[in-house]
Structures are given as C-alpha cells and as structure tokens.
Amino acid sequence: MANNNVMAVLWLDPLEQLSSVELSAFTAQGLAVSQSSSANLSDEDISSADVVVVGLSRNVDLLKQLQSRQASVNAIAPIVARVPREMFELGIEAMSQGALTVVSCDQKSAFEWTETFAQAKITPSEKQQAFVFADPVSRNLLALTERVAQVDVTVLLTGPTGAGKEVLARILHDASPRYEGPFIAFNCAAMPENLIEDMLFGHEKGSFTGATKVQPGLFEQAQGGTIFLDEIGEMSFHLQAKLLRILQERSVVRIGGQKSIDLDVRVIAATNRNLKNAIAERSFREDLYFRLSAFKLTIPPLRDRPLDILPLVEQFMSQQIMEGQPARMTSEAQQLLVTYRWPGNVRELQNVVIRAMVLCNQGPIDSQHLIFDDMPIADEFEQQRAVVQANGYFSRQPDRIDAQPYYGNSAPMQNEPLNQAVKNSECQSIMAALQSSRSRDQAAERLGISPRTLRHKLQKLREQGVSVTRAYAR
Fold first, then answer.
1. Per residue in 420-469, pLDDT tens?
2. What domain range is 411 assigned to?
3. Cα Rg for the chain, rounded, in angstroms?
4. End-to-end C-alpha distance for the chain, whole angstroms
5. 98-134 pLDDT per residue, tens
6. Are 286 and 360 within one domain?
7. 394 and 469, same domain (yes or no)
8. Are 357 and 333 in a shared domain?
C-alpha cells in the first residue's frame, strides 16, 4: 500500500504536463502527483490534494476557478502558482488573489519542488478513509478489490452515479504493485471528441494548427501506473476503435506521429450505463466491452449497503466541523437517513449532511434539518430495478417521480415482454424529467445521463411516434 506520508500534489497546468520520467522523480521524493485539466477536474481530485500547483500564462482566471471549486467542496489545500519568469506582475496578482507562493515555470526538478513545499511549510495531511466498508456487502467488495489489485488485468467498474467508482479505482491502484506509479483519471464525457483524442493519445509538433511542441498523452503520462477512464460508455464509436487497438497492442501512436510507443499501463474503466444494452443499440463496441471487462466489479447503490450510511455520515460531519464544535445527530435523524432510499447515493448523502450542519447552527442535527434532493434520477441501473409484474404493469415507480406510466401513443399491453417494459419505464422517466425541468441540459442532469445521450434517446422516441415538445426537440 502507498505510504501515508506521501504528499498528494494536484498538478493543474494547461500548458505543460510532466513526463513519465519526471513523475517517477517526484514519486522518489515522496510527492504523489495527479495531473488534470480544468475541464476534467473532479471534486475528488480537489478534496484529496495536499497542495495544488496551478500554471498561469496570461491571467489569474484559472486560479479563481480553482478557488471557487475548492469552496464548493470545502477544500483548503494551499495553491502554488507557476508563472513565466518574465511576467513579474502576474505573480504579484496571483499572490494578491490568494496563492500561497509563486515559482517560475522553469522549475520542474522534483528536489526543487520538495524544497519549495518545505519552505512554504506545506506538509502531507492526515486524510481520513475516503470510503467506508462497514456493511458486509462493502467488506466483501473490498476483499475482492484487493485480490484483483494484485493481478495486472483490465478492470471494469459498474454501478449507479455517485456510488464511489473513482474511489474504488484509487483503491485498486493503491493496493496494487503499481502504487508508486502515477494515477491518471480522465472523464470520457467531459469534453469534445477531438480534445479527448488529443488528451488521451497526445500529439506531435506541427500535427495541427497550434501544436507548437510535442505533447505526451495521458496514456504515456500513466506509464508504470494506472489510467482511469470514467464514463467510458459516453465515448464516441470512433474513439472506441482507437482505444481497442491500444488495449490490444499495448502501444500508442500520437496524433500526427508514426512511431509506436510501448505502454506499461493498467487500465480501469467505469460506467453507470448498461453496456450490454449499449451494444444491442450499436452505441458501444462488443469487442471493446470484452477487452475492458477482463474483471468486472459492481458497486451496489447505497440503499443496498445500509450499514455504510451512518459511518459515512460521521465521516462527512467530521470533515465539516468548525471551531472544534462536536457534531451530534439525534436518533430520529439517524433513522430517517437509514430508511431513505438515496437515489443519488453517497454524493446525495454528503449534500444532505452538509445542509444539515448549516441549518442546525452548531446544535444537534434533527430530522427537520435533513433536506433531501427532491429530483428524479433514472439511469440504466435504476431502470433495470423497475421490474414488471406478471400483468406487465410496473412493480413500482422510480424514486420521487410522481407521474403516471407513459406509453406514447399506445396503451399498455398485458403480459408485456420485459425488454419492452424497461423501454416504457425509460420513456416515462424521460418525459417526467422533461416536464419538471427548465431545459434539456437540466433534464439530462436529473436523469444522470449526458445531454448527448438524452438527444439520442429523444430522437429514438420521435421515431417511435412519441410526441416530444418542441422545446426539447431541437
């Protein structure tokens, strides 16, 4: 396992990334560097960092964006700004905006960074366990994860949104022989296809307009470690073919290049979609699915591991304690948390706890302080749980959607096939989300899918004769 005294460094520089050799040098100095971009930055990246290194080139906008994200997740990691040596005024502005210290962009030596952190009195923080394994279901999952971590196979993580797939991916990395190598996380739905290709595979100098230098991709940056591809189900068909070739050949060719670069990388992918259904819909490659799922781990929703709820609540409360005030919760509030179905999983639980600590005004948290996310959430995993009864009607409605079953222009059929019932359930959830949302993007967010996936599903509904309002048809 990784050393607890290792300092977690978040490297956020849109202009310059560290090479695999440089990352190894940082690791040797006790610095665990996680590289990311502003478009691909997750809350987990921000909250787990001991220090953030931000590269600034023209202005301090990126610094302000990072501080806003830190405030949203209550992260307090100090920020070190990298600025060009000749832009003295930019360094002064960065300090005035809250950067702890400023260094020159010329500084890339791991030893120099160690000295910089020591002079600024930045030390590794004692982090609490990021995931709770109190329920027997969770303990079994942890035991299986630690066994899989010892075998260098590609792993596919499945489970609903907010259940903790990235946390489990980090456990797989930390428990593996690759723990000293880099852990690179990438969200496949975070940016346009052309940028995703450039980020993953890198490019050669002059390969396109603006390519002024060689840029290694994330696969190269993850050499000797692990690359985590989140929301793999949202990757375009074109990129799926390229990813399949990388998994088969264990090598990558940069954009505009001809040389094949050998890879020593473990691949972990994650999705909240049912990829077998996506294969049937011809939106996901079957050969890629079998390459990714050499070993498949499924994270159950929070409601299926209820003994994890209260330990998670204690963890979230301890993270929010202000001025040493102890956090307390009444038994009525605890009972309400345990019996709630948690459609938003761990992410929703954290939101509820934060709201409650604000409302209780340093007193005990009671049931009236608990405000739940009153939104419809329906993803592929939730749809499968809406199993039809023998007469073909829904056995239950999706959580917190007060709407009648929607069947388009036809009435429900008796003894309806299961796959048709699931389609009707999906249609019902989509229509309910559209009716209760101000925009298509908001409806997609409530459904737990991307706007592109929602557009695809709406087009299929229109082809089946389902009336979709014009506001959502464009």
1. 656 677 777 787 777 777 777 788 877 778 877 888 788 777 777 776 65
2. 380-473
3. 24
4. 51
5. 888 888 887 778 888 888 888 877 877 644 445 678 8
6. no
7. yes
8. yes
